[in-house]
Amino acid sequence: MKTILVTGANGYIASLVKAYQKDKFNWICMTRKDADLTNPEDVKKFVASQDFDICFHTAANATTAFCNEHPDLVHKINVESTQAIIDCCKEKGAKLIFCSTEQAFNGKENRGPFKEDEPLSAVTVYGQNKIECEELIQKQLDDAIILRFTWMMGLSYPGIKASPSIIKNVMNALISHTPTLFTVHEKRGMTYAKHLATQFDKITELEPGIYHVASKNTMTTYESAKFVAKALGASDELIEEIILPNNERYQDRFRDYRLDSEKLESLGIHFATFEEDVNEILMDFGWKKS
């Protein structure tokens, strides 16, 4: 049985993957208590001390505003600590599975969905950090898998704290009866994270390269929010009152950073559509009957 060192082990993706794959791998968990990502030497010391076959590197600061405000600090967290992990994987001959992002395309003028070989362009520090990491990995490691994620969705349950998602945002708006804006000039992928977690064992066996983890979505973020509200049983009147269009955000340039997952599909790793994912999540967590 192979051993996986997972960084960001308390985060949503890491926790979910571990939960579904707990019997297929030995797991070593790296959290903030083990190594401070703002100190790359601290990261290198911890990772070098572990014995593993695969490093699943999920840890990062992905908060767009924080990254833009603190570029030097997040460069240590997102890039320099990744370099420390690259060094360790290279020394140990271990495979690296690196979590990248759709945000590596947020500066594109043309529309998605984008394939893996599409040139990257990011206007945010976080997106730029991930592009730099991808370049470092590709230059230095022969055995590495780069997974570019869309916005990963799900809901929390004991032991698993889900990241913010459009489903949670719509639920919060409806439950609190708070009118909430959703972006009109944006299309992005949104994927049920469970589908990554259940197929992660297959992902570890992939050939080195870049792969897009993405369900299909043809709707704008505003249209997607209305779909979620409808799936939750909200009336048309309530949706019109609470789910509001944000026509100002990105009006200068439509943002479309959807990812094309055809490459993984061709290898037997399947993802669904946004609509199917939303309905599955709501059924899995008892918000909707089958």
UniProtKB/TrEMBL annotation:
Signal peptide: none annotated. Pathway: Carbohydrate biosynthesis; dTDP-L-rhamnose biosynthesis. Keywords: NADP, Oxidoreductase. Residues 3-284 form the RmlD-like substrate binding domain. Coiled coil: none annotated. One of its GO terms (biological process) is dTDP-rhamnose biosynthetic process. It is an enzyme of class 1 (oxidoreductase). Its EC number is 1.1.1.133. One of its GO terms (molecular function) is dTDP-4-dehydrorhamnose reductase activity. Catalyzes the reduction of dTDP-6-deoxy-L-lyxo-4-hexulose to yield dTDP-L-rhamnose. Belongs to the dTDP-4-dehydrorhamnose reductase family. This is dTDP-4-dehydrorhamnose reductase. It comes from Holdemanella porci.
